[in-house]
Write a structure and sequence with these properties.
With about 325 residues, the protein is an alpha/beta fold. The protein is built from eight helices and 16 strands. Bound molecules: S-adenosylmethionine.
Length: about 325
């Protein structure tokens, strides 16, 4: 990355207190839930730093308590901030342990008055005793409840729960490498597994006959459908489903896929999913991975029938040990 700092468009920090009772936001110390206070993070979008400072200040002034995991008391558990790279839009998500807190409306008014750059504020309610950051219920407290961004000439709407690549500059390089490796033909049926908000599917649709995108998070599929509509892309269908179930069904019905994009989470693909891939036998597979270990494990399963033609790492997470990789595989003759 040419400028490998301040690139993260998604910030999520737990909220707590230090020993003196001061409200802090930061990161968990390794293998603990002790918060290390962070006032400036060198890989996160700089627009989030003053917003976090204001939230800490407002919590102090308005006596809004951080959530205490041991006592299971308090109000704000986590703060999420999503920034748009190309549009001047920022989303703040307050993850709370309560349905509403006293002075909530004043809190949001004060926050958005001090930071007019915030375009939407969402409350996510998470009352469970869990490490999972987001709960199931959300209220839109201000604005539309999503932000928009532009990648490679397409516009995307992104809700709080939808996956969206965290490094917008490198994402364009990643997607370009993936689309180039796929070398899609105009008659090809393309399947985008783990599609998120449909980013790869919509790019592939420009080259293909038809594209199917499947994703398990309902809100992300809702974003994907809107994104297809707003970008005028008609040759794509999106489905909210477990991709292993969906592909299983396609294999049973003898449906054809020419090019498969698969971009699973870190834990890699489901074995059932890979079994269905081996039944359908797409001509090409473009495996996009953020975890080399599961990438290698899954490719070993595909290797009997597929040949690796290229491996392209992309520096998506500078200053960390993580790496993104695009692997192109072709069906052996
Ligand atoms: C690494 S993200 C990739 C998203 C998208 N390709 C992109 O570039 O923005 C992985 C996605 O897989 C989804 N996912 C996880 N398990 C799934 C499953 N079993 N079936 C379908 N989607 C799943 C996640 O919700 C997430 O959106």
């Amino acid at each position: 990355m040419d400028n490998p700092y301040f690139y993260r468009n998604k910030i999520q920090m737990p909220v707590g207190k230090d020993r003196s009772g001061k409200i802090i936001t930061g990161f968990y110390k390794a293998n603990t839930h002790d918060i290390v206070p962070i006032e400036k993070c060198y890989i996160e979008d700089e627009r989030s730093t003053p917003i976090l400072a204001t939230i800490r200040q407002l919590m102090k002034e308005m006596r809004v308590e951080p959530y205490d995991e041991d006592k299971r008391t308090g109000v704000i558990r986590h703060i999420l901030i999503r920034t748009s790279y190309r549009k001047k839009q920022i989303m703040v998500v307050l993850v709370t342990n309560v349905n509403s807190f006293p002075g909530q409306r004043n809190f949001v008014n004060a926050l958005t008055s001090k930071h007019p750059e915030i375009t939407t504020v969402v409350q996510n309610i998470n009352k469970r005793d869990t490490n999972v950051i987001l709960g199931n219920y959300e209220n839109i407290l201000f604005g539309k409840g999503f932000i928009e961004d532009t990648l490679m000439g397409l516009n995307y709407q992104i809700s709080s729960k939808s996956f969206y690549q965290i490094n917008p500059v490198q994402t364009e390089k990643l997607y370009s490498a993936a689309i180039e490796a796929a070398d899609i033909d105009k008659d090809d049926i393309v399947f985008d597994a783990y599609t998120g908000i449909g980013t790869i599917a919509l790019l592939a649709a420009k080259h293909a006959k038809h594209v199917i995108g499947v994703e398990i998070v309902y809100q992300a599929i809702r974003d994907a459908i809107r994104n297809a509509k707003h970008n005028g892309v008609a040759n794509v269908d999106f489905h909210a489903a477990d991709v292993a179930d969906y592909l299983d069904q396609m294999a049973l019905e003898n449906q054809k896929i020419d090019v498969l994009f698969m971009d699973p989470p870190r834990k890699g693909a489901d074995e059932r999913f890979l079994e269905s891939v081996l039944k359908i036998k797409p001509k090409k597979i473009i495996y996009i991975s953020c975890e080399p270990e599961t990438l290698a494990r899954d490719i070993r399963i595909l290797a009997g029938h597929y040949k690796i033609v290229s491996v392209q790492p992309v520096d998506m997470f500078p200053q960390t040990h993580h790496v993104e990789t695009v692997v192109a595989l072709v069906l052996k003759k």
